[in-house]
Every structure is written in C-alpha cells, then in structure tokens.
Design goal:
With 261 residues, this protein is α/β, with parallel strands linked by helices. Helices cover 24% and strands 27% of the residues. The strands form 2 sheets. Strands 6-5-4-3-2-1-14 form a 7-stranded mixed β-sheet. The protein binds zinc ion (2 copies).
C-alpha cells in the first residue's frame, strides 16, 4: 500500500497545507480518506479523480469533508468524462447523515436542496462500529471513536498490510483495538498534553501528542505518523512529545509526502 498526504492541517486549512485528506493506493485501487478544505486541488496533482475507487469519511466536520462539493461538481459537470458517471456511481463510506448533509453543503438554495439527490453519481455506505466494507482491492473497517459527533477511525487493509487512520478522537480503547498490530497508525495530535489552559486535556475531542504515542504503543503498531496539527500548534514540539511515549519510528506528516506501507 502507498499513503500520500493531500493535506494534514487540523481544524481547517493552514498556510502550508490543506485540511485533512489522504490518498491510499493499493492493488490498483485509489481510496481517499477524508476530503477536507483544499484537498481536492492536491488530489488532482496525484491522480485523475476519475480514477478514484472510493472515498471514506471519518466524520463530517468541514476540515474532513468540505471538498466533497468539489467532487460533486467534477463528477456531474466535467465536460469530457471518460465514462458515464451515473452508470458507475462512486462508493462513499461515511456516517449515516452524510447524504443529507452533503446535499445541504452542495445546494446553494433551499429550492435547489429540495431537488438535490447526490445518488445519481455516488453510492453511500453508512459506516458503523465494527463494519467491514470492501472498496476495490482494499477492505475498510470502522471503529466508533470519541469525538463531538458520529466519528470513526478507519483501518484499511490490503495484501496483509494495514493502515489505521484515527480521524478525530479523544482517548479511546476502540482506537487501540482497531490499530492493534497495524503497520502504520496515522494519528491525530491536535494539542500538547499540558498547556496554560489545562494540566490534563479535555476528553472526547482530540488527542494530545503524548496520548497519540500512548495509543500507538498500546496497539503495538510498527510506525506512528502524526497529523491534524492545527496552524497555531508547534508541530516539532508535538513530535518530541509523542516520542516520549512511543519507542518506534514517529514522523510528522507533511503535504505531498508518500509512505510505502
Ligand atoms: Zn478535524
Ligand atoms: Zn472533528
């Protein structure tokens, strides 16, 4: 498998990176995990979007799904499509509310929303805790995690290799279980463990870098990649913090970086 970072900034796009988005290539399949603000641009540097096999969304905060609207336009209104998109709807794995919320995100008026049904060019598959969904040559397994809304960590497997993406989550055992023995844990690290505002981070929102390292260690993953660092955070300090709790290789991802898994 190959992981390519489209964007990795947390909570919104930053000056040097779009928000959350990752391309996973395996066995001829092209799966995108999240399409946050600004990620549809770099996606086109790495892949003709017509070659997508599927898109999976960890949750529906805009920094993880805002560019779905760009994909709708591409799929519906590209003047020279290589095939009839209505005959080959693109699989979209997402929380239950996605069809309704993506329609609202796309439609510019109440009138158009009343007529908007995105199932002409997409097939929606609702994620659920423990559910496995095959996408091309990969299998995606979801685990419910502890965030502000219906949110999932996603495990992508192909040919005996496994990548786990945390999505956004506070500390939770379900992420450890999903990531058990994975080759790579792509894990959010949104803030330092101790700040001027707290001595323990709030629960049910995000992981500190220390907690990202703790989850990686508890799951026994081979490698930890830190992501979702907001523009106002010090990435190098977060990297140092994660190394204190995880003995294996740790890196801070950057846009356009590629990793063989
Ligand atoms: Zn986020
Ligand atoms: Zn979120």
């Amino acid at each position: 498998m190959r992981l390519i970072v489209l964007g990795c900034t947390g909570s919104g796009p930053g000056p040097t990176s779009p928000a959350s988005g990752y391309l996973v290539q395996a066995g001829g399949s092209n799966l995108v995990l999240d399409l946050g603000n600004g990620t549809f641009g770099p996606l086109q540097r790495h892949l003709d979007p017509w070659e997508l096999t599927g898109v999976a969304f960890s949750h529906l905060h805009p920094d993880h799904c805002a560019d779905f609207s760009a994909l709708v336009v591409h799929r519906r209104y590209h003047p020279y499509p290589p095939f009839d998109a209505t005959r080959r709807p693109l699989p979209v794995l997402a929380p239950m509310e996605a069809p309704r919320r993506f329609a609202a995100q796309y439609a510019p008026s109440a009138q158009e929303l009343a007529e908007t049904d995105l199932t002409d060019v997409f097939t929606f598959h609702a994620l659920a805790d423990g559910r496995r969904i095959p996408v091309g040559a990969t299998t995606v397994r979801a685990a419910r995690v502890d965030h502000l809304c219906e949110a999932y960590a996603l495990r992508v497997e192909h040919g005996g290799r496994a990548l786990v993406f945390s999505g956004d989550t506070g500390p939770c055992e379900s992420l450890v279980e999903l990531a058990r023995g994975a080759d790579v844990l792509l894990c959010e690290a949104s803030w330092p463990h101790v700040t001027a505002r707290w001595t323990e981070p709030p629960t049910g929102v995000h992981l500190s870098a220390r907690q990202a390292g703790e989850h990686a260690a508890a799951a026994g993953v081979a490698r930890l990649l830190l992501t979702h660092v907001p523009p106002w955070a010090d990435g190098e300090a977060l990297l140092t913090e994660a190394k204190e709790t995880f003995d294996g290789p740790v890196e801070l991802v950057v846009p356009d970086a590629a990793y063989d898994i």
